[in-house]
Amino acid sequence: MSAKLSNLVLKEYTKILKTGEFSDVEILVGEKQNTKTFHLHSLILKVCSPYFRIFEILINYIYSGKLELAKNDIKTIIELLIAADELCLNELCSYIEKYLLNDKESLKSNFILILNTIEKYDQFTILSQFCKTSCRKDPSIVFRADDFVTIGQECFLEFLTKYSDSLKQIEVWNKLTEWAIAKSNNELPSDATMWTIDNITTFGTLIQPFISHINFQKVSSIDFITKIKPFKSIFDDKFYNKIVEDHCLNADLTSPQIVKYLDSQIINLRDASLICNWIKAMKKQKWEVTYDFDLLVVSCSFVNSGV
């Protein structure tokens, strides 16, 4: 809508506010003799303010006992839950929480909305328990939420304090990068490979409080080189050198990748795992293939005979 047209609409709004024409809502403001009645329009109020949409739903519930939550999205339902709590409609609050719990997929998709809600309103015990149980079982549920980037800094820090050790550390770094881009007010391009020195400085400022919560020692060397080293400048020199030193010292101690497929017609995975145990001189058998087996020669007779 152009500025000229917008101004015209606002003038019409002002006119009907003064005249009260077509009004269908009256709001009385003031006390005793000092009061004033405003003649307003429910359509305009509902379009401009979510509060009035929620208020209408609550009024209908109070007068009729009917509530059709299925017609509303989860954000509206959460707003309704908060409004019901403020009006001390405890039975309605309990009903709404149980309704939300029956749609776990929506809760998972909007997990940050739920987290932010229970952070402010700890009386919503059903939702609170759902969040706590979900995080204990699988902390990465936070990262998979559609609304992940809306998580607040304090909430994010608290989450990492509790669950960072249960998460893949490179995943923490990747999601932290995604979060910082969203919080940068369009200062950071979505493609980190295009960042300027100033962009990297902005990034460093945003993620500084989180760095101590990442165990860089558990990041693979290839991920460290490709995804973290380009941002070396955001780290304290002493801290960065310690990370590199730890990587060098512990290179042999990192958990090897487990091979799931073997391109061979002669040996199978169990045979390969036995060979791995011989190489490591392991007394106790461990049925994992932790070395790469490369196929060097293929006989034509084998190929033709299907061996």
From TrEMBL:
A Pfam short name: BTB
PROSITE patterns assigned to the protein according to its UniProt record, in alphabetical order: BTB
Superkingdom per UniProt: Eukaryota
Cited InterPro entries: BTB-POZ/Galectin-3-binding, BTB/POZ_dom
Annotated BTB domain residues: 23-53
SMART domains with a match to the protein in the record: BTB
Name used for this protein in its record: BTB domain-containing protein
Organism: Rhizophagus irregularis
